[in-house]
Amino acid sequence: MKILYGIQGTGNGHISRSRVLAKELESCGLSVDYLLSGRAKEKFFDMDIFGQYQHRQGFTFISENGRINHFKTALNNNIFRFISDIIHLDLAVYDLVITDFEPVTAWAAKIKGVPVIGIGHQYAFGDNTPKSQDTWLTRSIMKYFAPAKYNIGLHWHPYDNSVLPPIVDVDLKRSTNKQHILVYLPFENQKEITRLLKRFPATQFIQYSPDLFNAQAGNVALRQTSHLSFKQDLTHADGVICNSGFELISECLHIGIPILTKALHGQMEQHSNALALKQLKYADVIDELSVDNIEHWLTHKASANLPPLPNVAKAIATLIANNNWQAFNNKTLNLWPEGLQCSRST
């Protein structure tokens, strides 16, 4: 079986879980090519796992100071190039397309009649999934941005029979030597974040962002985003402050790290994640980053104390290798902890 795997590259979460699934697909002896879109190719880093991957412009969003700038987002995306990329993407040699909310591969497969599986967090947003700031536009984006006939959603709770637990590196272990608070707020103003963190001189922070260079600013270590160093610093973290994306929070839940999270304003998925975290009591959720909010969390932080996540990537890769993905149902895989039901948590 020959597979093309499309990965949305706007944030690092899609890439992070795709790294894990890529290893398991290879272990199952599957031949996989990769296509990434959503940011300029030179802004990707540590991409060896994906080999000689293809790149397309795709679609992305522009954020400023912790909120989406819809005007700049519209100007930055080229619908004519997007359509051209779909038309000219050659799928003749592929038996199957996997998309992690990557639109070029998803639409090309749909138009050209190649089976496509959607694997990712966005495919978990069914009727029972908690949603916040949900509108006709956001529902349309979720449905039509990267459509797939077969969906495997990923979430923190089995809101539907097609939803599995998050894909994480199950070998990730938390160190007993907890040294710092890890801060990853890539959609915020980094200078303002540094100034805010310096208000807590007794606490050591490591602040990561693609826009930073490695330096020291008082009690704040500034780090440019790197896959390996980030994972190492994550395992030694006494807590994590982050936006309400899916993958990093999933890794924190997996290894028992306390979480303080703020949704990116104007991003329905992140607001919905924040709502789910509140309902499940898995993280401390705030609307704004402030001295008072951070001080309270530093004093009272606690982990969700959940069991480690199962090897979801291996289960999915095996499902695909055995050609059983068409009739997927999470009950047959039995990956959710006993006692969780397919319903909304309150």
TrEMBL record:
InterPro entries assigned to the protein according to its UniProt record, in alphabetical order: MJ1255-like
Superkingdom in the source lineage: Bacteria
NCBIfam families on file: MJ1255
Lineage: Bacteria, Pseudomonadati, Pseudomonadota, Gammaproteobacteria, Alteromonadales
Protein name (record): Glycosyltransferase family protein
